[in-house]
Design goal:
The complex is a heterodimer of chains A (616) and B (396). Chain A has 29 helices and 7 strands. Chain A has 616 residues and is an all-alpha fold. Among the domains of chain A are: 171 residues, no CATH class; 178 residues, no CATH class. Chain A has a 3-stranded antiparallel β-sheet, with no helix packed on it. In chain A, helix 27 runs parallel beside helix 28. Chain B is 29% helix and 15% strand. In chain B, strands 1, 4, 5, 6, 7, 8, 11, 12 and 13 form a 9-stranded mixed β-sheet that branches. In chain B, strands 2-3 form a two-stranded antiparallel ribbon. In chain B, strand 2 and strand 3 form a beta hairpin. Classes of the chains: A mainly alpha (616), B alpha/beta (396). The interface between A and B is large, with 72 and 69 residues.
């Protein structure tokens, strides 16, 4: 799709938001395409297919992968009792359209896109976070989402313009470029930022040529110099002499209105001051060029020779080349974009790499089963990058509905024929506790844009003249309270958000602090791409053994798991409820000897068990 | 973090003169001109006045009257330099020796020490971070080398004790059921990841039940030692750090933040300075009394200093070129000043000391090669102290 197509598409999406999404057409048909290819490979290797999972295992697995938590007892029972045809396909459809999906997949994208407060210059990530949530809610096509992120510009806190957060969260433009390539193309080119890559083909010049597309893109939190001079400077100087706190409130509040990403690329870049190779001199002008594939045409206003004759710091006039970069990066003809996307989503659902390392793919690489990779790429393109259609295809496949393989315990060998045994993501563990506390774990997942202090103040600031800012700074409640007051107003504007202990992890926003349990379970710090941790450590285990679960779930009579046992006299029946609530299955005969134990001890043990925290 | 004996690296440390480090980090940027660098023009000192100390030729500001009696144990480093002027980047640089990048996170010094010096027989973690603030990340190292965080020194490690509602016998029953469940799961689905959980439960239980966990319990400390310290959180954190070092912990980091006084410095700063004055003095007394100062390197650092001018809001702004850190113990040239700033306080002048050299010096004193290189999982090499070199002349 051309860049105009993409720009047009975003308009169409805005218009179609209120139209309900149609049912996915024939996901089972597409799933069978996958299964045929997997079956052929198993045949070729003379390996028997894995056994198919039962309804209990399927139900748990799908809840975990589609909406990021275990099913409640009622949800499990309802699925098991369903005796109509196609019940698995119907559950897939239902969950992909549920609020739980929005919560779970927000966490996924927020990690990949590293939503985080990164410094003391007011790159507040709230609007960014809301933009991702809205993209997930409206099921925005992934290529469109990526295009908007790479091409984002304008005001940071303007509601709806949160895609700017992707640039604002990065302290340095070259790092941002390297991370964009890793995020969307699955390639690690960061080495070439400073030196020719010894392992790959990329040279430092390649990197700088790519950087030329987005050169002179920058974040500025204060008003532009002209605006500053004619509008704000005089009062700023006055306040600086008058009172520090008032000056700070003035500075910060003006910033909330003006902070923006500027620049859309000049198509030129200059080599760094310490350029060390023979094919160029420091500050030599580079014209934009792509790493592979087709070079999009650029409307240069200057020739390279023109620019060469100018000063070292001159990169030329803006020509909107960043949009061309976004188009190239997210093109369906790209040998990397779709491949990196399906590699990533397969990894999320099955637990293994389809093609190669999430951030270390090469152009030629097609994985251990190229036919499968190609088929998944074709499905993604045919689905027009609709993530839900792609996921429903995977979920409906026999491969997905196969017994999970413990990796490293051969035979059988792992041949991209289904999921592996793996630990649940941090947020999924934390959110699964909710399924034991309440029968409506997704109740407080937001269904619309939520204001925060920054978007709320931005909104107000549209009517504020300079004297209003001065007034606000002088009569305002001071530096600390400035933000707090706006957050408070935003909270009121949002309406009821429910008790925090019943929120899913995704509902925690920047000003709500960390979700401590998710952090203990290894939630990504979002400094780096794909840096969530699924390993055990002592603080995590100490929490599981001795922490708040005792009062929240294990011995809490108002928790759902205990309420479900009310009036049930028979000990075996009570134990069955515990097993189904926590492990989503009935007890095995060999486990019946554990029934004699106190019920809270059994709950504790099941919650601490590997079966609870591993997906199988 | 995890228990060290699970995964020990080994670098012999024949040249080590320090066994442990107590690393006090003053996040926010300590004003050098209102603390330990008073050898500048009088106008630079703002409202600070100069007092003599118990070390010849070492004078300090009036906000450190107690430490003035301990300056014979301290080396004052007045020529520190960093290339970072904003807090997050400055803190990152000081603690990791690298500029922050968004393609990699680097291990903190404490994490390098943890990984380098941990031995199989160690029963306590070798990197503990005490107090609120950045705990101590392992960067690209496995998480086991991160700091074990102790948020509140009076409470010890979170959840290290059995929940009050659960008696020991009941707890043991729970463990039995858990073992049975995990055995069943392991038969069908066991991997190295599931076994890693089983192992970490075992080490967590061992940790909960070990007598060494007493190390984190200040109630068990000798009353004579406790009475050396005040009751405020920073003093108690120093006490805990001393107690941990006595039990062999290699790197105890103590956080004392709040130094970012851009306005009204002279009304807000004294209370915080008083905490540092008292807490550090108590710690030095404690270590001396126990004979631990010879083997313990005490470090006081901050991400940068403050400007020589007091601004119109009666505060001081950030200043990376010429700030002050302290060292004590482990054979450091105590009772002296190393390095100077220009008399107008604007620049480091003699014996400039970059933060990477500062970090290299700490590592070297522990017997770790500062140029020791480790690769990230994707093969990028990084050194403990970046390009830093140990400043051996700081030690006698």
């Amino acid at each position: 799709m051309g860049k105009m197509g993409k720009a047009l598409k975003s308009v169409v999406i805005v218009l179609s938001i209120c139209v309900s999404v149609p049912l996915f057409a024939d996901p089972q048909g597409r799933a069978r395409q996958i299964d045929r290819i997997v079956a052929a490979e198993l045949d070729r290797l003379d390996q028997a297919p894995r056994s198919e999972i039962d309804d209990f295992t399927f139900c748990r697995r799908l809840y975990l992968d589609a909406i990021g938590r275990i099913p409640t007892l009622d949800e499990l029972d309802r699925f098991i009792a369903d005796d109509q045809p196609e019940k698995r396909a119907r559950l897939i459809e239902e969950l992909l359209q549920s609020k739980g999906y929005n919560s779970h997949w927000y966490n996924y994208w927020a990690d990949l896109l590293r939503v985080k407060y990164v410094g003391d210059k007011l790159h507040h990530p709230g609007n960014y976070s809301e933009w991702i949530k809205e993209s997930v809610r409206s099921n925005k096509a992934y290529d469109q989402m990526a295009f908007e992120l790479v091409n984002a510009g304008g005001e940071l806190y303007k509601p709806g313009n949160g895609a700017t957060g992707f640039y604002a969260r990065e302290p340095m433009p070259l790092d941002h470029l390297a991370n964009s390539v890793k995020t969307f193309l699955g390639m690690g080119i960061e080495c070439a930022q400073c030196h020719d890559d010894p392992y790959e083909d990329w040279t430092q010049q390649d990197f700088y040529k790519l950087a030329a597309f987005s050169s002179k893109t920058y974040l500025k939190v204060d008003p532009l110099p002209e605006d500053e001079k004619t509008t704000y400077a005089e009062d700023r100087a006055m306040l600086k002499q008058k009172d520090f706190d008032e000056w700070i409130v003035y500075r910060e509040s003006v910033r909330v209105k003006h902070a923006s990403i500027y620049g859309n690329g000049t198509g030129f870049m200059r080599l760094p001051h310490d350029y060390q190779y023979e094919d160029g001199e420091p500050f030599d002008v580079m014209t934009a060029d792509v790493l592979f594939g087709e070079m999009p045409p650029l409307n240069y206003k200057l020739t390279k020779a023109d620019l060469d004759s100018l000063k070292n710091k001159n990169f030329g006039p803006e020509i909107n080349s960043r949009q061309s970069l976004a188009g190239w990066m997210t093109s369906r003809d790209s040998p990397m974009f779709t491949k990196a996307t399906v590699n990533r989503l397969w990894h999320q659902i099955m637990g293994t790499e389809l093609v190669g390392p999430l951030g270390g793919l090469t152009e030629e690489e097609m994985g251990d089963h190229p036919a499968l990779t190609m088929k998944l790429i074709a499905i993604m393109k045919a689905a027009d990058y609709d993530v839900k259609i792609f996921l429903s295809t995977l979920f409906n496949s026999r491969a997905y509905q196969s017994r999970a393989l413990p990796l490293g315990v051969e035979p059988p060998a792992y041949v991209l024929d289904g999921p592996i045994v793996r630990r649940l993501p941090a947020e999924v563990i934390a959110d699964s506790f909710l399924s034991l506390k309440t029968d409506t774990p997704d109740k407080y997942v937001a269904t619309e844009f939520k204001w925060d202090g920054f978007t709320h103040f931005y909104d107000k600031s549209q009517k504020m003249e300079v004297e209003d800012f001065v007034d606000y700074s002088i009569k305002g409640p001071g530096r600390q309270a400035f933000q707090n007051r706006e957050e408070e107003e935003a909270r009121k504007r949002n309406g009821e958000s429910g008790p925090k202990d019943l929120w899913r992890v995704s509902s925690y926003r920047h000003h709500d602090g960390n979700h401590e349990v998710a952090v203990l379970m290894g939630q990504s710090t979002r400094d780096l791409i794909d840096s969530a941790n699924r390993e055990p450590d002592i603080p995590q285990i100490l929490y599981m053994m001795n922490g708040d679960l005792e009062g929240d779930v294990i011995a809490q009579s108002t928790a759902l798991i205990h309420r479900n046992m009310e009036g049930v006299e028979d000990q075996s029946e009570r134990m069955e409820i515990i097993w189904k609530s926590i492990l989503s299955r009935t007890p095995q005969a060999s486990e019946e000897r554990l029934f004699a134990h106190a019920q809270d001890d059994v709950i504790w043990a099941l919650l601490n068990s590997n079966e609870f925290r591993f997906s199988k | 973090m995890s228990l060290p004996f699970l995964n020990a690296a080994s670098i012999p440390a024949p040249t080590a003169k320090a066994k442990s480090v107590i690393y006090i980090f003053l996040a926010g940027g300590l004003s050098q001109y209102d603390s330990f660098n008073v050898e500048v023009d009088k106008t630079v000192l703002g409202k600070s006045t100069i007092i003599d100390s118990n070390a010849d030729g070492v004078r300090v500001s009036n906000y450190f009257p107690t430490l003035a009696n301990h300056m014979d144990k301290l080396l004052v480093l007045n020529s520190m330099q960093t290339n970072q002027g904003a807090h997050p980047a400055g803190i990152y640089k000081m603690l990791t020796s690298y500029n922050p990048r968004s393609s990699i996170t680097h291990p903190e010094l404490g994490s390098w020490v943890n990984k380098s010096l941990t031995r199989e027989q160690d029963s306590l973690p070798n990197f503990v971070s005490i107090g609120r603030g950045r705990a101590g990340t392992a960067g690209f190292f496995p998480g086991q080398w991160a700091a074990l965080p102790v948020q509140d020194p009076n409470l010890g490690i979170d959840f290290a004790e059995r929940n009050r509602a659960v008696e020991r016998e009941k707890f043991n029953k729970r463990i039995d059921i858990l073992d049975a469940m995990n055995k069943g799961f392991d038969q069908d689905y066991g991997t190295k990841d599931t076994r890693s959980y089983v192992d970490t439960y075992a080490s967590s239980l061992k940790f909960m039940n070990s007598k060494d966990i007493d190390a984190f319990d200040l109630k068990k400390e000798d009353a004579n030692i406790v009475s050396l310290y005040g009751k405020d959180e920073f003093s108690r954190s120093c006490l805990l750090a001393g107690r941990l070092v006595e039990r062999g912990v290699r790197f105890a980091k103590v956080n004392l933040g709040g130094w970012d006084y851009h306005n009204d410095l002279y009304s807000k700063y004294p209370a915080n300075a008083n905490r540092l004055d008292k807490g550090l003095s108590s710690l030095l007394t404690h270590l001396s009394q126990k004979g631990l100062l010879e083997s313990t390197l005490v470090v006081v650092s901050t991400e940068f200093g403050r400007k020589p001018e007091v601004n119109p809001n009666r505060g001081r702004d950030h200043h990376p070129d010429g700030f002050t850190c302290l060292m004590a113990g482990a054979g450091v040239k105590a009772g002296q000043i190393y390095g100077t700033t220009s008399s107008d306080g604007k620049h480091a002048e003699e014996n400039k000391l970059d933060v990477i050299d500062f970090n290299a010096t700490i590592a070297w004193r522990l017997g770790i090669d500062p140029a020791f290189e480790e690769n990230t999982p994707n093969g990028r090499p990084f050194k403990l102290a970046n390009r830093g070199e140990a400043r051996k002349e700081l030690f006698a």
